[in-house]
Structure formats: C-alpha cells, structure tokens
# Entry
Amino acid sequence: MGLAAVRNLRPELRLTTPEDVEAFEQDLLAEFVLARSSAGTEDKTIRTDLSAICELRDWFGKPLWEMAPQDMDRFFGGKHRSAMQTTKARKAQAIGIFFEFLEMRHQADIHAATGVVVETPLDELNRPRGNVHARLRIPPSAPEIEQLFSGWRDDLGSVRKYAPSVRSYTAMRLASLLGPRVSELCLLNVDDIHWHMGRFGKVLLRGKGSRGRKKERLVPLINGSRELLEWWVHGPRWEFDDQVNAPGAPLFPSERRHPDGSCKRVGDDTLRTALAGMVTEHLPKFSGRLSPHLLRHFAASDLYLSGMDIVALQELLGHEWLHTTMIYVHVTRTHVEDAWVQAGQRASIRLGGGLR
# Structure
C-alpha cells in the first residue's frame, strides 16, 4: 500500500518525559490517519484501524514500538483467544499496517531517541489468519441454537459456580432472542427493564456509536425475552447480591465487588469465554466460530423468518442504515428463489398459450 509523504512533525525528537512520549504518540496517530486517507482508504476503515491500534496500546500500557513478538502472542493468545478468527485477522491487519508505517517513516527517529529498533511484533507464527467459514456470517439453525442452550441449561444443575454460569447463560440467551450487542448487555441495569411499557414491556439498550456518540433505543420484550428476564431478575440474579432493586444495579453482574459489597458489571470477555466453552461442548460444529455477534445474526435471521419486516428489524438491532440489516438476514431471504419460481410460472403460461 502506498503511503503519502507527510512532513516530519518532530525533526529532532526528544522523548525525555512521559508527556513527550504521549505527545509523540498522538502525532504518530494523526500522521497515520492522514497517510491512510491520502492513500484513498475509506474513513470507516481508518476508524476501525485506529480502534484496533488504540486497544492494543491500552492493553500493552507502553509505547507500541517497544512491543516484541511475545507480547503479541499474549494479546491474541490471551485477551483475544476466544474472539472470532476474522476479528483477530482484521485487527492483525490494522496493527501490521501501523507497524509498517512506523518502520518506513520513523524507525531512525525512534531509535535515536529511545535506542529501540522498531520491528513489527507480528510474524509467521503469531499472525492470525482469516477464517474462510466466517467470511459469510452464516448463523446456526434454530434447532442447533436450541441444542446449544438446552445443553447449557442441563449443565446448570451440576456446575461448580451456579451464579456466574446462569448469568452468562441468560445474557447469551437474550442475545439469541433480541440481538443486542454484547457491549449493550454489559451496560444493562435492572431498572432499564420497563415491564409495563407497551404491549410486552421494553428494555433500554445503551451503546456507543461511531466517533464516541452515545446511542440508546427501547426494544420490546418479544420472542420469549420477557419470560427469560422475569425468571432471571426474580430468581438467580439475587445469588450475586441483595442490591437488585437499587438504582443502577447491573442486570448482569460480575463476581467482583465494589467496596460497599455490591457487584460490579460483567465484562464482555467473560461472556465471550463462557459462550465459547458451551459451544465447544454442546455445538462443536461451530467451535471457534459462534460468537455473541453471530448470535445477533441468528436473532435477526430467526425474527425475519418468523415474519418481522426488515424496517422493524433495523429498529430492533439499532442499525443506522437499512443496508446493514439486509446483510444480517440475507442468508435467509428467499427473494431470488421466489423470483425464479415466478419467472418459471410466467414462462409456463406463455408457452402454454403458444401451444394452444
């Protein structure tokens, strides 16, 4: 990929204080964005790349030019061990491009200022590859999803830690029924459930949109989700603490606690790991491929097959563009097959009329 020439913002680099390092890192990101933009990369792709780079920096806790391959081993083999293969491959691609940028533009400067020779920590051993099965997100069928969650339910009676297991089960089952994002599940409070709103009750989902914008939407408790949440809130949720009715109490708590004894929120990694384990045990065909996001695809496809129109699905899933929703359900849409059958019927009529 060709990168446009951008003038050196710091011709005599000095990194003597943490503030100097932070300022230089910000300059690098700004220059990287400008270079990618001048190469014709779409804004959406640039934002996605930046998100992966900033996530890696936050996890590493030090300037990225200090990373070694062993650090990247821990990032993908630990933090993202249960992530979808395509997600890891996409992040690896963004990280690789950023290190190529560092090597091409600033290797000499960084070495002169720090003594570190910038080299990409990605190599042939630890670079995630794309998964051909995940290029097209084809969710499990309804019987397969039922197989997964019925097996998970049966396990709850014998697990060593009942509360965390039933918490993860409920959150992931809700994902398969309504299609919330895993980040939205983690942010849910008990008082976000409005039992008497509308015909079925509604739940307030909160998340972050592009460029840090906050997004909220009310989702009706359809498709068995109300019964699931009633069972959870009035039963197993009390296994964690007695703050269920307190303002802001998390709907899906963690075992970790605040100083006052109340539970913190569950993290998305915890939910992903729990789902991955159950998939391996009860739906091995999808081992390593069924993520919370693919459950979101399943919910969309299942509701579409049940007769929900595409605009209602767009609102339910919180998509800004209808095209995005179409991607979620296109594997179950039958408009091409229907058009083929109708064309065949019209052809038969024409041929029949000619024979007469």
Summary: The radius of gyration is 25 Å. The CA atoms of residues 303 and 313 lie 8 Å apart. The longest helix spans residues 85-114.
